[in-house]
Amino acid sequence: MFSYSVVGAQLYVGDMIFVMIAFIVLMWLIKLVAWKPITKMMQNRSDKIANDIDSAKDSRTKAAELAQQRQVELDKTREDASGIINTAKQNGQQQRDQIVEDARNEASNLKSSAEKDIEQQRQEALANSRKDVASLSIEIASKIISKQLNEDDQKGLVDSYIEGLGKQK
Questions:
Q1: What pLDDT was estimated at residue 1?
Q2: How far, in whole angstroms, is CA 140 from its chain's centroid?
Q3: Which of 31, 102, 123, 151 could in theory staple to 35 by disulfide, Cβ–Cβ 3.0 to 4.6 A?
Q4: CA–CA distance, 39 with 36 (Å, rounded to integer)
Q5: Pairwise CA distance, residues 123 & 162, whole Å
Q6: CB atoms < 10 A from the CB of 35, how many?
């Protein structure tokens, strides 16, 4: 056999071949038994990390979309609330104006009604005064003249007297 000498040690070619074959067999066994499961485990872990990163990105995107949607809805709610408040203010103003207008109309109607009542009472008082004046005048005149006037003459006399009073004013 061949032998090589290396600084005081001898290597045998047969031992070298045996060691090389044993090393190759050992590497092949490690590849079958340990390397494939370790590689598979590392690949699975890598896939899980990639999926977790993708899931986190999706969650972040969804959260941003939900935040934007919430902001849009919040703005819309504020606009709706503002619109409701403005409508309520306008309705309140219209009701106030209507109440004031109704009160003015009622006051005007009451004033007009009072004026009519006053005029009617004045006319009644004037008519009663005419009757009273006529009665007194006739009584005085009949005592003065010592004669009784008929009813038509009395009315004519009273009317002319009252017309004379109205012209004096």
A1: 47
A2: 84
A3: 31
A4: 5
A5: 13
A6: 13
pLDDT at 70 (0 to 100): 94
Q: For residues 94 and 82, give the distance between their C-alpha atoms in angstroms, rounded to a whole number.
A: 18
CA distance 43 to 29: 20
Q: What is the pTM of this model?
A: 0.41
Mean pLDDT per 10-residue section of the chain, whose length is 169 residues: 52 87 92 83 93 93 94 94 93 93 92 90 83 72 60 74 65
**Domain map of the chain by residue range?**
3-168
